[in-house]
Write a structure and sequence with these properties.
The chain is α/β, with parallel strands linked by helices. Helix content is 64%, strand content 6%. A 6-stranded mixed beta sheet has the order 1-3-2-4-6-5. Helix 2 packs across helix 22 and helix 7 runs parallel beside helix 20.
Length: 515
C-alpha cells in the first residue's frame, strides 16, 4: 500500500510538471478563453469600454482595460455581474465564479497563473477520483497505476488543464459523479460498499449540482451513468439504494436550477439548445457514421492508447469466436465493469457528438476518463494478466511518446482556422483590429488574448468598408511605424491593393505600408 501511494504521488507530480511546462509555453488562446477573461472581469458584452475605440494602446494597457481593470478595482469578484452576463451566454456560471476568485487571489493581471492554480487543483482532485474508481474496479495495484498514468498523461487531459474554460471542472464533476456511482454499484472486496452508502448518495447529489452548474453536456454523462447503474441495481433488487440515488441526483440537478434560474431557458429555449435538439431530431445512419468517424479520429489522435487497446480486444474476441482463444472464466464483476464503462463513454460521448454544432474535441474531452477506464477494463477482461499488462505498458508508451508531442496538444479551435506561430505576431510592428458590428463583442476576444505583449494595438469598429484602405494607412501613420498589420473581420470584402498574409480566427490579416 505504501509503495502504491509513493508511485501515485510521483505520477501526479510528474503530470503537474508536464502541465507547468506546457502552460509556460502556451502563446495561442481560443476565442472562448478571451470571453472567459472578460466575463470574470465583469466587462464582457460591454458595447465599448471607455477609451477603447479609435486610439492606440500598449497591449498590456488593452488587457488591463478589457480583462483585468474591474477585477483589480473591486475588493471581491462581482459575482452578480458575472452571473448576469453568463445568463446572456449559453453556459452556467460555476467555473467563472471560481476563476474570478482564483484571479483575485493571484492577481487579475496574472491570469495565466490563476488559471493553472484553479485547473491544477481540479486536475489533482480528478486524479484522486480516478484513482478511487480504478482501485475499486481493478484491485490489482499495477493495473491501477497504469490506468492512472494513461489518464494523467493523455494529451486530452493535459490540454484541458491549459484551457481557460470550464472543461477541467466538468471533468472533475464527471469523475466525482462516476466515483460515487461506482462505489454504490460495485461491492468491495468483502461484498460491502467499503464506506457509508449515505456518503456516496451525498456525493452523487453534490457532483450532480456542480456538474450542471458547469456545463449542460454533463446531463449526457448523468443519463449514461444513471441508466447503467439503474439496470444493475434493479437486477440486484436493491430498491432502497436505487430510490435514494435517484433522489440524490434529481435533487442535485434541481439545486443547480435553483441557484441559476436562467438554466431552464438555456436548456429549453436558447439558440444553442434548439440547434442541438434539431441535430438530434435529424439523426440518421449516415450522420451517425460520419460523426462517429470524426470524433473517433479526434479521440484516437489525442488518446493513442485507444488504438492499441481496441485492436487487442477485437482480435481476442475474433479469436474466441473461432475457438482459438478461451474467454471462459471471466469474473462477473469484470464483465459488469466493462459494460458499465462502455455504456458510460459511448452514451455520453455519443450524445455530445450528436448534439454538437461542429466537430471539436472539447465537447467530449471531459468524458475521456470513462474512455480510458473502459479501455483498461476491456484489456484486463479479455486478455491474460501478463499480456494485459504488456498491452497497457505499450499503450502508456504511445501516450507519453507521440501523445505528448507539442503538436498533439489541443487548442480546441477546430471550428475556425488560425495560423500557427504567425510571423505577424513575432514582428514588433503594430496591429490594427477592424471589427464588424456583428459579433465584435466576442470575435475581438481572440485578438485581445492572443496578440503578444509589447505590441501597439489600435481598435476600430466599422459598419462599412468605404474608405477603409485609406483610413488604415492613416491610422498606421499615427503609430509612428512605417509597417504594420490589420486584422480585419472576415465579414468585410477583401481589401484592394493590400496583401493578405494570414488568417487568425475571424480576421483576415493584411500587411500595411505607410505611404
Amino acid at each position: 500500500m505504501k509503495r502504491l501511494w509513493l508511485l501515485v504521488t510521483l505520477v501526479l507530480l510528474t503530470a503537474i510538471a508536464v502541465r507547468i511546462g506546457y502552460m509556460t509555453c502556451k502563446d495561442a488562446w481560443h476565442v472562448d478563453e478571451g470571453i472567459t477573461l472578460a466575463l470574470t472581469n465583469s466587462s464582457w458584452l460591454s458595447q465599448a469600454h471607455p477609451g477603447l475605440m479609435e486610439r492606440w494602446h500598449d497591449k498590456a494597457d488593452l488587457e488591463e482595460m478589457v480583462f483585468n481593470g474591474n477585477l483589480s478595482a473591486a475588493r471581491f469578484p462581482d459575482v452578480q455581474a458575472i452571473t448576469d452576463r453568463t445568463a446572456l451566454d449559453v453556459h452556467p456560471p460555476l467555473f467563472y465564479w471560481l476563476f474570478a476568485l482564483s484571479r483575485k487571489v493571484v492577481g487579475p493581471e496574472h491570469w495565466r497563473s490563476a488559471l493553472f492554480l484553479l485547473n491544477g487543483l481540479l486536475f489533482l482532485a480528478s486524479g484522486l477520483c480516478f484513482l478511487a474508481i480504478a482501485r475499486r474496479v481493478f484491485k490489482d495495484d499495477t493495473t491501477v497505476l497504469l490506468a492512472l498514468a494513461l489518464f494523467v498523461f493523455s494529451s486530452t487531459t493535459v490540454s484541458l488543464t491549459l484551457f481557460a474554460r470550464m472543461y477541467e471542472l466538468l471533468q472533475f464533476s464527471c469523475l466525482a459523479f462516476l466515483a460515487s456511482a461506482v462505489y454504490i454499484v460495485f461491492p468491495g472486496s468483502h461484498g460491502t460498499s467499503g464506506f457509508s452508502r449515505g456518503v456516496g448518495i451525498v456525493c452523487l447529489c453534490l457532483s450532480a449540482w456542480t456538474g450542471l452548474l458547469t456545463h449542460y453536456y454533463f446531463l449526457f454523462f448523468v443519463f449514461s451513468v444513471s441508466l447503467v447503474s439503474l439496470v444493475v441495481l434493479i437486477a440486484r433488487r436493491d430498491w432502497n439504494i436505487l430510490l435514494w440515488s435517484l433522489f440524490a441526483v434529481v435533487f442535485g440537478l434541481f439545486l443547480a436550477s435553483w441557484v441559476f434560474p436562467p438554466l431552464e431557458r438555456h436548456l429549453l429555449y436558447s439558440n444553442r439548445a434548439m440547434d442541438g435538439y434539431a441535430l438530434l431530431a435529424r439523426l440518421r445512419i449516415g450522420m451517425i457514421s460520419e460523426r462517429a468517424l470524426h470524433y473517433g479520429l479526434l479521440l484516437c489522435r489525442h488518446i493513442p492508447a485507444l488504438i492499441v487497446g481496441v485492436v487487442s480486444v477485437v482480435v481476442c474476441v475474433l479469436l474466441s469466436l473461432t475457438g482459438r482463444y478461451n474467454l471462459r472464466g471471466r469474473s462477473k464483476q469484470g464483465i459488469i465493469s466493462f459494460i458499465f464503462f462502455a455504456i458510460t463513454c459511448v452514451g455520453s460521448c455519443g450524445l455530445a457528438a450528436a448534439a454538437s454544432p461542429f466537430y471539436t474535441l472539447r465537447y467530449v474531452a471531459s468524458f475521456s476518463p470513462a474512455i480510458i477506464l473502459c479501455l483498461v477494463a476491456g484489456v484486463v477482461l479479455y486478455l491474460p494478466r501478463t499480456l494485459a499488462r504488456r498491452i497497457l505498458v505499450v499503450s502508456l508508451i504511445l501516450t507519453i511518446a507521440p501523445g505528448l508531442f507539442p503538436g498533439n496538444m489541443s487548442s480546441f479551435d477546430e471550428e475556425y482556422r488560425r495560423d500557427r506561430n504567425p510571423l505577424y505576431f513575432k514582428d514588433p510592428a503594430p496591429v490594427i483590429i477592424v471589427s464588424h458590428p456583428e459579433g465584435f463583442t466576442w470575435k475581438n476576444m481572440i485578438a485581445y488574448a492572443s496578440i503578444p505583449r509589447g505590441k501597439k494595438v489600435y481598435v476600430t469598429l466599422r459598419y462599412t468598408q468605404d474608405g477603409l484602405e485609406r483610413s488604415l494607412v492613416d491610422i498606421l501613420q499615427g503609430s509612428g511605424s512605417s509597417t504594420g498589420y490589420a486584422m480585419v473581420d472576415v465579414l468585410f470584402p477583401a481589401l484592394e491593393g493590400i496583401p493578405v498574409v494570414g488568417i487568425y480566427g475571424f480576421f483576415k490579416v493584411y500587411k500595411l505600408e505607410a505611404r
